[in-house]
Specification:
Two copies of one chain form a homodimer. Chain A contains two helices and eight strands, in the order H-E-E-H-E-E-E-E-E-E. By secondary structure, chain A is mostly beta strands.
Chain lengths: 129, 129
């Protein structure tokens, strides 16, 4: 079953109380995972329609792996699952925000979160925090 | 001047201390803006190379407007600027996280942040928080 399409009037899309996700040309929507307790941003990933539906139905964060081109139940292999506390959608509904309880590391490098390097604006070097 | 290209070895890209942003086929990278004080997620937008460079050079969040197809200095028209406190990059460098001090509303609807609706997983209705 497909989701309802986005409303053509932008202001209506901003204010509707209906879920009408706006997938991009590749059929994807951006998904930010944020730690529900600390508000730390854990990762940014992508969902297709099936991933968004699975996330809502199972309460377990499920993404679309662009590299593997397959549905990706987060932590299915690693055990590093994300229990979904809340899912929010942005104004034009082309991005979702998952508030999650993360088991273990969110990042495939073994770090808690993917955003572990800060850019020095002068030198453009990265430093790990 | 262009940024250095991403490293072909994925593990090297994850660990390098060089800024090597990975732009998508449209030349864009996802940018999350987070309130530096409250950690609230304000918005998700896009940057091309010029926008990322301008953000780093000016300390004022600058995005690429996909609808207008032009560089978008956040708040240039509305006054709702974002002073950049810190810019982080994720593991594979295809997303950046801006920690910002937001003046006024981040969302074009006049709300503080764009993620103002929660999805009810059972009914798929949105409720405003």
């Amino acid at each position: 079953m497909s989701f309802e399409p986005p409303l053509t009037n932008k202001a209506d899309q901003d204010e509707t109380d209906e879920l009408r996700p706006k997938f991009n040309a590749d059929g994807l929507i951006a998904a930010i995972a944020q730690d529900a307790d600390t508000n730390e941003i854990l990762m940014l990933a992508w969902m297709n329609e099936a991933a968004l539906r699975a996330t809502l139905e199972t309460g377990r964060a499920t993404y679309w792996s662009r590299s593997r081109q397959e549905l990706w139940v987060k932590g299915e292999t690693s055990g590093h699952t994300q229990e979904v506390v809340e899912v929010l959608v942005d104004c034009d509904q082309d991005a979702v925000l998952l508030k999650v309880r993360q088991t273990g590391a969110a990042c495939h490098t073994g770090r808690k979160a993917c955003f572990y390097r800060t850019i020095d604006p002068k030198t453009l070097r990265l430093s790990q925090s």
